[in-house]
């Protein structure tokens, strides 16, 4: 049985995106994303994919779209639903990561065994917001606390949350 993981970075006010992009450029946070997801399938919606339009290396990349003729770059696997994406991913690895966007975080949350949640120390006025998931019955641990610096405008905290 595969383990379903969600991974996202949110602002203090739960914003995760603006104009189809991440609201920040935080290389140190991206390093955490890379480290946690490396070697595992990553499942994303078509808009999240279009933010970077490339393959995240070292991971099976699955993009969900309803467009039957959607043209993605070589190396991207397409799925027509989250269920189809899970089926594809399960063949590859025990750990599966849902990496966005809003609809897929919401839909996958009931199946999630772990959530890697980064809280960015900022309030952002964007157009994509993650739901306020209830983690009160989950076990949480802090993986990292990062201060702002010249390359990372905001500080952040990375939490690993496991269903209790
Ligand atoms: N901060 C973070 O951690 C984080 C993570 C991920 C994304 N983001 C941000 O979130 C924003 C993008 O996310 P989003 O929520 O707008 O879009 P999204 O979930 O990435 O993609 C939406 C697309 O997924 C497809 N889709 C949605 N529901 C479907 C279903 N039931 N069956 C099949 N396909 C379905 C549709 O593609 P088609 O229209 O092609 O059919 C839809 O347009 C960006 O700003 C991105 O930077 C932030």
What is the molecular shape? globular
Strand residue content: 25-35%
Name the bound molecules: NADP nicotinamide-adenine-dinucleotide phosphate
Structural class: alpha/beta
- Which architecture does the CATH hierarchy give at level 2? 3-Layer(aba) Sandwich
CATH fold description = Dihydrofolate Reductase, subunit A
In what order do the strands lie side by side in the largest sheet? 5-4-3-6-1-7-10-9
- The overall number of domains is 1
Low-confidence stretches: none
Record field, number of beta strands = 10
Helical residue percent? 10-25%
End-to-end CA span? 18 Å
What Rg, in angstroms, do the CA atoms define? 15 Å
**CATH secondary-structure class:** Alpha Beta
Mean pLDDT value: 97
Order of helices and strands: EEHEHEEHEHEEEE
Total count of helical runs of at least 4 residues = 4
The CATH homologous superfamily is named Dihydrofolate Reductase, subunit A
Largest sheet: 8 strands, mixed
């Amino acid at each position: 049985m595969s383990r379903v993981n969600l991974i996202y970075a949110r602002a203090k006010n739960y914003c995760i995106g603006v104009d189809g992009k991440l609201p920040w450029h935080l290389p140190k946070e991206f390093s955490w994303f890379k480290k946690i997801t490396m070697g595992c399938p990553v499942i994303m919606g078509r808009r999240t994919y279009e933010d970077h339009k490339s393959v995240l290396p070292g991971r099976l990349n699955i993009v969900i779209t309803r467009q039957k003729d959607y043209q993605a770059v070589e190396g991207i696997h397409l799925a027509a639903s989250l269920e189809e994406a899970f089926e594809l991913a399960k063949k590859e690895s025990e750990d599966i990561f849902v990496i966005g966007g809003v609809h897929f975080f919401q839909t996958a949350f009931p199946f999630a065994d772990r959530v890697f949640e980064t809280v960015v120390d900022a309030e952002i006025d964007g157009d994509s917001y993650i739901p306020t998931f209830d983690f009160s019955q989950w076990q949480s641990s802090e993986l990292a606390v990062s201060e702002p610096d010249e390359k990372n405008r905001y500080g952040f905290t990375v939490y690993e949350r496991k269903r209790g």
